[in-house]
């Protein structure tokens, strides 16, 4: 199964060739499926069952089941295209669209023939992922076996056009800080600054709008966590990929039948009992926020993402319901990283637009005081040279601000000297830095 990119007039279309199976193979495969717990069966069991049903056709039957039952069916070819970041189906009436890294959203030649076919396809994927979706519970987020994230809806109560789905593909090789620097998403000085904070212990909020790469950036920052520290991650759907050894990933669970719901607040309580050095929360969005800021105040280091596009929006959303974080607790944050994105002829560019440091509260007005440590203008980053976060770090670690500034410069030079590599190789080089 392969996909090619064709140009039609002033637009591109992705065409995918799929293997066609005979009606006999389809019919025999259905017999095999009805005789087995197919999701719990390995290839050997499926081949044995297929041999009993139709000797000589077992390999074709296995391929059909892999492709159409255990895999992603018509969407499977798109998953192997490196440039495809997202896959979306807005309706059976429209072609499947993909988000191409260089071209943005483009259509494909893949379609679903009916609302029933699309609904059954969604149910099959969701159920194999251990969750349920129905007309009465029509929205779900699940992790696919390869780590990709699926969001799906059913019926017309949520989307007027009927069933829909969106897949955010998982990168097998997570983006490293070095990748972000080379893509001009940050400068080596900015990354060295964040490296210094993370390695010494800091509370960092990564903020931005939809599609700005918050989780990707958070994942990259985690590569700076010293290997001798204990890390616990909390997410609704597994997206964070931290290759360190001393890490415990926790994932929320929806309540199904007699099963009780396990939300982020419950998982945060569990995490604190494990005495973590770092708690990494996929996204701050509910009642867990208050406990998260309490953990910061108690000496746990926290990194998390938050949906907000400006520093004023960050403060407003944290203080407003349902989060309701008291302003004095916000001073536990060391810095807030703001991400932005822009669509150009070369695709979407994601970058750090600003880094703000939390200084404290104004004694007279009670307003939150912040310092813009890094800013970006015309693609160039500038450092304010007055860092309150480094000053706080110096006081906490018994060093001086000039010493930390010198350390930051050495780290920046070190990052500039590194060659490209995967996440594990990058972490090994970071660990070797003295």
From TrEMBL:
CDD domains from the UniProt entry:
VirB11-like_ATPase
- In which domain of life is the source organism classified? Archaea
Domain annotation Bacterial type II secretion system protein E: ranges? 109-331
GO function term, MF aspect, one: ATP hydrolysis activity
Question: Pfam families annotated for this entry?
Answer: T2SSE
Instruction: Spell out the family assignment given in the record's similarity comment.
Output: Belongs to the GSP E family.
Q: What's the protein called, per UniProt? A: Secretion system protein E
Q: Could you tell me which species this protein originates from?
A: Thermogymnomonas acidicola
């Amino acid at each position: 199964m392969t996909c090619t990119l064709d140009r039609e007039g002033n637009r591109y279309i992705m065409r995918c060739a799929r293997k066609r199976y005979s009606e006999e193979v389809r019919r025999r495969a259905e017999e095999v499926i009805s005789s087995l717990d197919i999701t719990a069966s390995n290839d050997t069991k499926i081949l044995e069952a297929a041999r009993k049903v139709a000797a000589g056709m077992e390999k074709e039957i296995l391929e059909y089941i892999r492709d159409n039952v255990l895999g992603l069916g018509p969407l499977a070819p798109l998953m192997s295209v490196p440039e495809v970041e997202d896959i979306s189906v807005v309706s059976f009436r429209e072609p499947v669209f993909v988000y191409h890294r260089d071209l943005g959203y483009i259509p494909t030649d893949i379609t679903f023939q009916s609302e029933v076919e699309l609904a059954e396809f969604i149910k099959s994927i969701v159920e194999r992922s251990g969750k349920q979706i129905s007309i009465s519970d029509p929205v779900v987020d699940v992790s696919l076996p390869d780590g990709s994230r699926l969001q799906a809806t059913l019926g017309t109560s949520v989307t007027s056009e009927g069933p829909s789905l969106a897949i955010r593909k998982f990168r097998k090789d997570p983006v490293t800080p070095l990748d972000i620097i080379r893509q001009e998403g940050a400068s080596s000085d900015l990354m060295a600054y964040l490296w210094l904070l993370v390695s010494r212990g800091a509370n960092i909020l990564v903020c931005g709008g939809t599609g700005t790469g918050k989780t990707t950036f958070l994942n990259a920052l985690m590569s700076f966590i010293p290997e001798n520290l204990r890390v616990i991650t909390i997410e609704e759907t597994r997206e964070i990929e931290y290759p360190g050894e001393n890490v415990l990933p926790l994932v929320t669970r929806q309540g199904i039948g007699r099963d009780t719901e396990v939300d982020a607040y419950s998982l945060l309580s569990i995490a604190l009992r494990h005495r973590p050095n770092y708690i990494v929360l996929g996204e701050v969005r509910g009642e867990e926020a208050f406990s998260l800021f309490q953990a910061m105040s108690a000496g746990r280091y926290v990194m998390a993402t938050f949906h907000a596009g400006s520093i004023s929006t960050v403060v407003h959303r944290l203080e407003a319901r349902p989060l309701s974080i008291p302003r004095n607790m916000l001073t536990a944050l060391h810095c807030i990283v703001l991400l932005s994105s822009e669509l150009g002829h070369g695709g979407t560019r994601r970058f750090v637009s600003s880094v703000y440091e939390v200084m404290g509260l104004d004694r007279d007005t009670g307003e939150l005081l912040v310092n813009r440590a890094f800013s970006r203008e015309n693609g160039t980053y500038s450092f304010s040279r007055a860092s309150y976060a480094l000053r706080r770090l110096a006081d906490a670690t018994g060093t001086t601000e000039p010493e930390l500034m010198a350390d930051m410069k050495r780290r920046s030079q070190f990052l500039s000297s590194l060659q490209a590599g995967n996440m594990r190789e990058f972490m090994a080089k970071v660990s070797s830095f003295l």
